[in-house]
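JOB MANIFEST
job_type = single_chain_structure
chain_count = 1
residues = 678
[input]
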Amino acid sequence: MQDARTAFRVGVDVGGTFTDAVAFDDETGSVRYAKVPSTPADPAEAVIAALDALDIASSDINRFVHGITIGTNAILEGKGAEVWMLVTRGFRDVLDIARTNRATLYDITTLKPPPIVPRTRTAEVDERLMFDGTVLVPLDEDQVRAAIGQMPLEPGTAVIVCFLHSYAFPDHERRVAALLEEAYPDVFVCASSAVLPQFREYERFNTTALNAYIGPLMNRYLTDLQDRLRNRGYGRNIFIMTSNGGVSAAGRARRLPISTVLSGPAGGVAATLHLGARTGLCNLITCDMGGTSTDVCLISDLQVPVTNEQTIGPYANRTPQIEINTVGAGGGSIAWLDAGDILMVGPGSAGAVPGPACYGQGGTDATVTDANLVLNRLKSGSRLAGHIALERDRALASMAPLMEQLGLGADALAEGIIRIAVARMVSAIKQISIAKGFDPRDFVLCSYGGAGPMHAALIAEEMDISRVVLPRGPGTFAALGSLISDIRQDHALTRPLQPARAGYAEIDRVFRNMEEEGRALLQAEGVAPENIAMRRSLGMRYLGQSWELDVEIGDDVQSTEAIDRAFHAVHDRRFGHRSAGATEIVTFRVAAIGLAAPLELPDLHCSGGGSADALVERRRVYFNGALRDTPVYDRDRLPPAAAVEGPAIVEEAGATTVLPPGWRGRANEHGDLVLERR
């Protein structure tokens, strides 16, 4: 154990199968990695186990950043809190009506998902605002008190306040929220104007409902984790990775837990941005493949792609978040046959418990991990996270029913499972690249996660991408990203106006007022004024359109003409055309950023003259329908510039890299493994 000193920055990312941890020593620049099995019944238990695996005293940690999936899982599994709602009279059915689009086009029997707050738990009160915030009907507080008195609110439940046009005048919602907190101090309360101060009732109401749905759960978890860390000697604040690519103090995450639904994947994107800046790679497609799912994101010119139009499961979530596309294809994804005896993979997963069949923990279904083990791409007997021994016999046994039904041998079936999983990941990448006007061949694939390096080259081949970069410590890369991330708070304000009529001075005034508010909030959390940066963007559209596009407003944009040019460029890239018509600003957005201390990873230092020194064994591995004699290398012993020719396997703690025939790999001076097609 180290001598007592406060020198470590620690990041922990809780995944569906494993919990990853990274510690950076600010004094020596050294990095430690740890990976332990997740504990779904008590996620904090795995967090503590990961800290123990790092062999660092909690009192030695000066900054603790945490990526979590608790809120995400609660929404997807339908295990959130009971939520009640107070609305403007006449708008009781907003969540039931939702939008008229059909998610399944050709199924005439399809039904909308049930609302987070059913009609039976919704109460109406008299109050009404105009679109500009003018009070049409004053708030009737006596009626509010009567409605509150009829709600059987108990500790662990939640209640939301959603009034029409509250983004323009939040006072009514604030007053009702205060009355609720006074009457029920142990109930989670939130107002839509505090969660999402933007127009469009359904999206605002639903995002607020989701926030309340996971609020009590998040409060309990953070309280429990803070108590456990405090008992171990860590008395500082906990920071939570948020969906927008930044981090937030735990207090803010308690109030706005909906901002954490992409907490884990956002860490990987942040780490990729750091890698791109360090290596000079500006255009990257990330591919984070874990045990349960794969998250992909497109980074153009090292800019974080933040969107306000995502969903979680079937529900609209309009809080700012990195534009990440998730598909249910991970190492634990289960292979199965549909009604037509067609082989499918995912989205069902074996998860952490019981896990793939080869884990020997009670799982019986064949998974992607089992398929890789059958093909000898994973080594039988090797241990994952230092705990779980892989058993090839169990993997073969899990495939026996599918082999019998399909009439395939074990190798052919296993390769088919992997190809289907790869096809699903390729489809997810096409949605964020080709569908949005980007050619994936112009990008480098950055793959990480415990299963990412195993499939990266196969994905790249399907996408005709010629280069892949696998960062050092890929299995814990998302946890590393949380250490790099800045504090970030996003502020939005709906205020429709036409740039040509309003003038640049008015637009700049609105931005400056929002920036002043954001700066004050960051300083209240202890961020020094010199470490605060602001980023502007606008939700814009052509006059008469229904939906807007997000337009970055850089420091070089100093006129309404420049704003219009920026919008035209975004519209042209997204839809392939532009118009000479008038433009309209719908929403002003400001990202208030508290810059984190820089983190410089040490360069790779490895003894040895070439790849031969890193060779640990040779084994027969299945590629393209045949077993091939394949060298296996230890990644930690690969010196910079040493070439590895495919077919080859490169092993390390936490991940395995597969180089198919036709690929070549080399380590750079930073320890990243770069793969290229010959």
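[summary]
The radius of gyration is 26 Å.
Residues 540 and 585 are 5 Å apart (CA to CA).
exit_status = 0
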